[in-house]
Structures are given as structure tokens and as C-alpha cells.
Amino acid sequence: MTWFDLSVPLRTGMPVYPGDPEVRIASALTVEADGANVLSLGLGSHSGTHADAPLHVGDGWAALDELPLSLFGGVAEIVDVRDVARGGAITAAHLAGIAPAGSAGNPGEPGNPGSPEKILLLHTGCAAAWGMEEYFKHPWLEAAAAQLIVDRGYRAVGLDALSVDPSYPGAPDGNQHGDPAGGGFPAHAILAGNGCIIVENLTGLEQVQRATDAGSDVELFLFPLNIPGADGAPIRAVARPLPAAALEPAAARALSREEVQEAADRLVAAFAATDTEAYFAAFSPEATFIFHPEAQRLGSRSAYRTLWDSWLAGGWRVLECRSSEQDIQLLGATAVFSHRVATTVQVDGGGARDTSDERETIIFSRTPDGGIACVHEHLSACPQ
Fold first, then answer.
1. Whole-model pTM?
2. Which of 84, 333, 341, 374 has a 20 to 30 A CA-CA distance from 195?
3. Contact criterion met (CB below 8 Å) for 236 and 7
4. Residue 68: how many CB atoms within 10 A of its CB?
5. Domain match, 12 and 94 both
6. Looking at the 3D structure of the chain, how many domains does it have?
7. Which domain range does residue 100 map to?
8. Which of 189, 217, 247 is at the close of a domain?
9. Would strands 156-159 and 73-80 be described as parallel, antiparallel, or unpaired?
10. How far apart are CA 315 and CA 345, in angstroms?
11. pLDDT at 356
12. φ, ψ for residue 72 (rounded to 5)?
């Protein structure tokens, strides 16, 4: 499986938001002197690739540990905004094509974001300037763009830049460590005020861009350190392309030959053992049956179960069951299994036997939970 690392390394002296604590990493213990290597870490809660909690810009808003873990994982919806000039605005027009996030939460209730199906990524291309002065002059979100993100249901937004608001003096809609209430951090205030987490200083988004451009869905993991009451925390952001089947409804996934063969083998074994419970558990409750010795089609599993129970009450038992000439036809989420089956049964509880040579056709179908069930069985006499 391919994994994408979307996190910048934590190093002493690395870039931080102007005014934030510097990152200092040093040796605290060594194997030679102390028997073990241990590092001392000094950093701010927004160092490196990190997540902002709503608390970051609003007292009384949710801290990271008050948010559901499901918020920090989801499928990427990535927007390529690399054509926005450094220091320029990402507008609502740039984001007009984003799909709804599918959030189950209440957009108007900060701190109750629900569980998003998608996480929005803004690919600015600024990661290429990491460690350079120009990294601080990056694209930023206009208030209308931030509101559009909220309106589409997103509760997690990430970008490969220092901030969703401007990070340099004199910027049109922001300033260094401004007051959100006074307009200093308008994008932060809108997103956080609607329960969004904000992930900043991502890197490597071109990997996600290539995968999605090639038609793959990409799953994101953006889990922060578990710090009670935190306004933010560093994260290890990673992603992986998903197989196409992983996002299909379970009932729509195509059956494989192996699945059908295993299901058929279980069914034959349960019949041969006269294992009533295992046998009928293999059939859908709505399954139908046509047996050549019977006068009419049996319209449900329960009708067949009644007939089966009457046979057992009369002393009917399977003595031998041989399957041959098997064939499987795959039809997406449905498959047809057929075989020639020779069966010897005890018919009266005594020594009498009845041997049949029949052609059995069973239709299997994918169930809503992704399993497999028999939905129709047709038993016909083989030509002599």
C-alpha cells in the first residue's frame, strides 16, 4: 500500500508563525551517559504541520480534545489553487466547484461538527518555499470563501501554507496576531466559529493531487497530539489512495469467483450434514425455490423451511451428496452457480433409500452489509 507523508519535519530553528515560540530540540539523555537516548522538545502548539482547534481564536470554543476523532480522518476533496499569486486571495469563485462534505453535524453549532465524509485540501504550492522568507507571503482565504466552505458542510480544512489568513503586515484582510473580532483573522473566525478544524503547514499535496487527478480517492489522517484543553497541536499528516471498491456501497461490490465458490461449498456441506440452521442461514429471507418434484414454486425461505421440517419429521436424512460439473457465472453483485448433484437420502427413517441425479442452479447476491446470500434455487432432473 502506498502512503503519502504530508508533514514537515520538526527541527530546531524551523519556520514558525511570527511571534510563536521557537522550536528547540536537544539531547536530554544519552545511552553513553544515562543508558538511554531521550530528546528534550520545546515548541508551540502551532509548530510545524498542526491542527487548530476552534479554541485557537475564540475563548469558550471547543479545544482539540473536545472534538470527535472522526473529524480528523476522511476522504480528500482537493482544490488546485496554485494559480493564485503569492499573497493573493483564494476567493469563493476558486472554490465554487467543491462537492458537499456530507457532514452529519450541525453547521451552526461550534464544537459539534459531526463526522465529515470529506476533508477539504487547498493545494497552494507554497510548500516549495518552506524555509524561505517568501513562505510567509502565501495565498489566503477571503471571508466569502471561508463561508462557502462552511456552507458546503466541511468541518476540516487543510492547506500547504502558513495560515488560512494573511501572515504578513499590511495584508488586505489581516495582520500579524490580529484580533478575530476586529477583523484580524476573518477566515479563522468563520471556520472555527462553525466548528471547523484548520490544518496548516501541510506538504506534499502534489501526491494527493496526482492520485485524485488519476481517479483515485485518497483517505486522510490528521490526528493531533492528545493534549487536554489544547488550542492546537502538531500532527503527523498522512494519506493513502483507496482502492475503488473501498468507497462503493457494500451491496454494489462485484462478487468474486472465490466468494461464490466458498458460499456454494458451505451450502453443499450444510445440506450433506442435514445442518438445518447453517443451510437456511445461507438463504436470503426473500429467497425463492423451484424443485421439480414439487407441485408449485416456493415463494420464500420460510415456505421451504416448512417443507424441509416436514421431511425431517418423516425420517428424511441425507446419506450422501456429491457435487460435480460445477460452473460459476459472475454478473457483478450477482452470480449464478450451477452443478450436477447426486444425492442419496433416507426417506422413511428406516432402510429405504432414494437416489437422485439432478442439476441445481443457485443465484447468489451481495447483501447490504457486503456479505453473500442465496436468493434463488432451482432444482431440475438431469436427462437420463
1. 0.62
2. 84
3. yes
4. 12
5. yes
6. 2
7. 4-247
8. 247
9. unpaired
10. 10
11. 82
12. -95, 10
